[in-house]
Description:
Layout: H1 2-13, E1 17-24, E2 27-34, H2 44-54, E3 58-61, E4 65-70, H3 76-91
Antiparallel strand pairs: 1-2, 2-4, 3-4
Amino acid sequence: MLRTMVDDLKNQLGSTVIVLATVVEGKVSLIAGVSKDVTDRVKAGELIGMVAQQVGGKGGGRPDMAQAGGTDAAALPAALASVQGWVSAKLQ
């Protein structure tokens, strides 16, 4: 479901970096999508790894799409808040 949402958002938004998350029964699921025009600077696998580490997990994937899981749902808001700064630094 998250993968479909990322694909739909990438098609609607054009040039974009997306991170979506959900928590089910205390487990965090993460997905990142990066439009192909920015994958030379922002890699979805690196991004999802950075977020996953903050929620006690790990993940990986392709430059344009990556998934991860974690166990620390309480850390999710701060992890998501860190995405904008990380992406901005990569785009400069």
